[in-house]
Design goal:
Elements: E1 3-8, H1 14-23, E2 27-32, H2 37-40, E3 45-50, E4 76-79, H3 81-89, E5 93-95, E6 101-109, E7 123-129, E8 132-135, E9 141-146, E10 151-156, E11 161-164, H4 176-187, H5 196-211, E12 215-220, H6 224-236, E13 242-248, H7 256-266, E14 271-276, H8 278-285, H9 291-313, E15 318-321, H10 326-329, H11 352-359, E16 363-364, H12 372-381, H13 386-389, H14 409-428, E17 437-451, E18 454-467, E19 475-476, H15 481-494, E20 498-503
Parallel strand pairs: 1-2, 1-3, 3-4, 4-11, 12-13, 12-15, 13-14, 15-16, 18-20
Antiparallel strand pairs: 5-8, 6-7, 6-9, 9-10, 10-11, 17-18, 18-19
Bound molecules: xanthosine-5'-monophosphate (XMP).
């Protein structure tokens, strides 16, 4: 498969660059900008992108590529700092400035270049830079200028490369996708072979090669990632060798365990180990109201319940499969670095089992190159139920972090009823797919209300609905008022112990998505 590597010099948008190149049908991956060429020049490399950076090329300690990248013979696209880096490294000079030019700027063509095939002269680009090219490196030419006379695109013909001062990866840049597509297809001559079917085939082959004739165990959470991994394993291996383990913690949503089991059976699962540990979890949580303590208890209990069950069902050697995603592998803001494997906050990932299997090289992570939306597409291609593919994220500790204060069975049951009404109403009203994550929270207070002629003293629930792309930041979903009022009324009418409903209007930051 053809591959474009994004060398990340500390850009906020390196992820976006890789995603947009993938949207052009070409596999793109991000690696730290200072990676040695011997590690970059692997099979299939057809091009490189130098990302932007908050640094200045002239300053000591600014990130530098291994100079041998310029001799690799593959085209480079330098973006912002990337252009300045190439100019500096190849003998030109960069003007260092304390002030930043930020925002929209028109780009006017001076020369023809394949990067701009099908792009309108005078298109609106997005700039965010202080420094700029002052003197071109030998043999280079200005292909385009910004409306302020800054070189916006510079050709490096000797190395078949090009640099741009603007950011084609951000949505504000007109023709941004087209420009990256032109780089991939017209400059690098990359084939558009990164399709979901090709991804599925590659993952299945790789699972077969890695696992050989052994058994494999996958811990199922019920979310889309682990279900898609299960689908891949079941396509790659005989189903009797695929052990799927699901723990009902008692902290799951209504009918969740049954739905998860149903979806897996539909995919051909035979070895489904469903562990009912509700009692163990609730007993361990009794009397505990600190959020951190609850998380710790749940994490430890998961590990011990799973270990007991594995001892019984899989006494011999086996591989462990994990639903780790590409974003989990990326160190915040710096590309895949030394600690690539320690990022995911999910309690399963840091468990001794995972660490032991990773150290022994007995782990398969077939989603490790994929973004969440690609996992969803892969799920659809593999026949995973739509309801699972489109399901909102659900935290590992489940309802325990949505019941503020002590967790009891009664509170879990109340919240399950409320949440089921909330989510099914969102689906009925066609709102569910507009929202990134919606759920309800049981507050640790009671409030007075009237039911019939009597005064009542009921629970308060908060409804949450947010829009996000990765959960790192989130906006409040602007809930249509009529729907919100109607749903609130259905909840208080049907769930007797709930007397009041409130809507959470906090964004992240400063709030978080979950309440605990
Ligand atoms: P926060 O609340 O941190 O949530 O804004 C961001 C996203 O992460 C999910 N989340 C968790 N997922 N274990 C998980 O597996 C956890 O302990 C956990 N806490 C939060 C949350 O649902 C949201 O999607």
């Amino acid at each position: 498969m053809d591959r474009i590597v994004v060398l990340d010099f500390g850009s906020q948008t390196a992820q976006l660059i890789a995603r947009r190149i993938r949207e052009a049908g070409v596999y793109a991956e991000i690696i730290p900008g200072e990676t040695r060429v011997s590690e970059i020049a692997r099979d299939g490399l057809v091009g490189l992108v130098f990302s932007g950076s908050p640094e200045s090329v002239g300053r000591a300690g600014s990130p530098e590529p291994d100079r041998a990248v310029y001799d690799l013979g593959v085209p480079i696209l330098g973006i912002c700092y990337g252009l300045q880096r190439m100019t500096h490294d190849l003998g030109g000079s960069v003007r260092v400035s304390e002030t930043h030019e930020y925002g929209r700027s028109r780009v006017v063509f001076r020369e023809k270049h394949p990067l701009f095939d099908g792009v309108d002269d005078g298109f609106v680009s997005w700039m965010s830079h202080g420094d700029g090219v002052q003197k071109l490196a030998a043999g280079c030419s200005v292909v385009a200028e910004s409306e302020h006379g800054v070189p916006a695109c510079v050709a490096f013909p000797a190395i078949n490369s090009v640099g741009i001062q603007f950011h084609p990866e951000v949505t504000h840049c007109e023709f941004g996708q087209k420009i990256l597509e032109n780089f991939a297809h017209k400059v690098c001559r990359a084939a558009a072979d990164w399709t979901i079917d090709a991804v599925a085939e590659k993952s299945i082959d790789s699972i077969r090669t890695t696992v050989g004739t052994e058994d494999v165990l996958l811990l199922i959470s019920g979310g889309v990632d682990s279900t898609v991994v299960a689908a891949l394993l079941l396509k790659a291996l005989p189903s009797e060798r695929v052990h799927l383990m699901y723990v009902n913690t008692g902290l799951m949503r209504k009918n969740e365990s049954e739905e998860v089991a149903g979806a897996l059976k539909k995919l051909g699962a035979e070895n489904l180990h469903l562990i009912d540990a509700e009692q163990r979890f609730l007993t361990a949580l009794a009397g505990v109201d600190s959020p951190e303590e609850k998380r710790r208890i749940i994490g430890d209990m998961f590990i011990s319940v799973q270990a007991d069950s594995i001892r019984r069902t899989l006494p011999g050697e086996y591989f462990l499969a994990q639903g780790t995603l590409y974003t989990d592998m990326i160190e915040s803001g710096r590309g895949v670095g030394k600690n690539a494997h320690v990022i995911k906050s999910h309690h399963n990932v840091r468990s001794p089992l995972v660490e032991e299997k990773r150290a022994a090289g007995r782990i398969v992570e077939p989603l490790a190159e994929l973004y969440k939306d690609e996992v969803r597409k892969l799920g659809v291609a593999l026949g995973v139920d739509e309801t699972v593919v489109k399901r909102h994220p659900f935290p590992g500790p489940g309802l325990a972090v949505r019941i503020l204060g002590e967790v009891t069975k009664e509170k879990c049951d109340i919240l399950r009823d409320v949440d089921e009404i909330y989510i099914s109403e969102l689906k009925k009203r066609g709102l569910y797919d507009e929202i990134w994550q919606a759920f309800s929270v049981l507050l640790p207070i009671r409030s007075v209300g009237v039911a019939g002629d009597a005064r009542d003293y009921g629970y308060v629930v908060a409804l949450r609905a947010v829009i996000s792309t990765d959960g790192m930041t989130a906006d409040v979903y602007p809930f249509p008022t009529n729907h919100l009022l109607e749903i609130s009324s259905i909840i208080t009418n049907r769930v007797r112990l709930v007397g009041r409903v409130v809507y959470d209007v906090s964004s992240k930051p400063p709030s978080t998505i979950e309440w605990e």
